[in-house]
């Protein structure tokens, strides 16, 4: 079975500092995508960043970047210059090729940002 | 573009009642999905559709039904509501079947 694991239920970071959220996954597929979604208190699921498994280069979106270690099946999210608006639940998810777009989600990490 | 819209935002049902959760998207996406999110958990797939007239079961389909008569709309039907269906329901759509965009969710309570 395909799985996505987030081992940090909660994390905290000081405003303007950097924080890294961890994610590991397990699949035998060769074609897949990995995502980080943000869920603020409003409940809206917001796509933060995505990584195609066939790309070696780590994805970056402004202050958000990933460390994709394919052999280790690891996909961590780094948030630089943390802002109060970054406080939210963060979900790691994977979409495995051939599954018609079924996203498998981790249980999430709750990020708090201290002023 | 409104993106993915869902109605209602909140609903309370009594055990045994039925209802339909509405979902619409204006991005001309072929792929649409219904997920549920239970407290402290990630999302789990209920049903999905790869185009008008085509639907298939996800991980947790029991107690639900769907239809897809148009590209834009993908309603989720709950028959004989049970307390186990208390959850937050999300609709999503995708152009490629990979990157998905979510609606704002519907919080459903069954008592």
Brief account:
The complex is a heterodimer of chains A (115) and B (111). With 115 residues, chain A is mainly β. Helix content of chain A is 0%, strand content 53%.
How would you describe this protein?
The complex is a heterodimer of chains A (115) and B (111). Chain A has 115 residues and is mainly β. Chain A contains no helices and 12 strands. In chain A, strands 2, 5, 6, 10, 11 and 12 form a 6-stranded mixed sheet that branches. Chain A is globular and about 40 Å long. In chain B, the strands form 2 sheets. In chain B, strands 2, 4, 5, 6, 9, 10 and 11 form a 7-stranded mixed sheet that branches. A 4-stranded antiparallel sheet of chain B has the order 1-3-8-7, with no helix packed on it. In chain B, a hairpin with a 2-residue loop joins strand 5 and strand 6 (54-57). Classes of the chains: A mainly beta (115), B mainly beta (111). The interface between A and B is medium-sized, with 22 and 28 residues.
Number of helices of chain B: 0
Return residue spans of chain B where pLDDT drops below 50 for at least 5 consecutive residues.
Answer: none
Q: Which percent range fits the helix content of chain A?
A: under 10%
Please describe the biggest sheet of chain B, giving its number of strands, its sense, and whether it closes into a barrel.
7 strands, mixed
């Amino acid at each position: 079975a395909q799985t996505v694991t987030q081992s940090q239920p909660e994390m905290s970071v000081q405003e303007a500092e950097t924080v890294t959220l961890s994610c590991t996954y397990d699949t035998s597929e060769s074609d897949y995508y990995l995502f980080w979604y943000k869920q603020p208190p409003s409940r809206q699921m917001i796509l933060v960043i995505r990584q195609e498994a066939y790309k070696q280069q780590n994805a970056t979106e402004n202050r958000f970047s990933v460390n994709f270690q394919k052999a280790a099946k690891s996909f961590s999210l780094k948030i630089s210059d943390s802002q109060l608006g970054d406080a939210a639940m963060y979900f790691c998810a994977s979409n495995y090729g051939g599954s018609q777009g079924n996203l498998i989600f981790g249980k999430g990490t709750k990020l708090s940002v201290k002023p | 573009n409104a993106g993915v819209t869902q109605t209602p935002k909140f609903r309370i049902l009594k055990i045994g009642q039925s209802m339909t959760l509405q979902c619409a998207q204006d991005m001309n996406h072929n792929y649409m999905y219904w997920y549920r999110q239970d407290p402290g958990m990630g999302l789990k797939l209920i049903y999905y559709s790869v185009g008008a007239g085509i639907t298939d079961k996800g991980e947790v389909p029991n107690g639900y039904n769907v239809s897809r008569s148009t590209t834009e709309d993908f309603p989720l039907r709950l028959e004989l509501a049970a307390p186990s269906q208390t959850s937050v329901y999300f609709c999503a759509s995708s152009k490629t079947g990979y990157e998905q965009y979510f609606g704002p969710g519907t919080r459903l309570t069954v008592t």
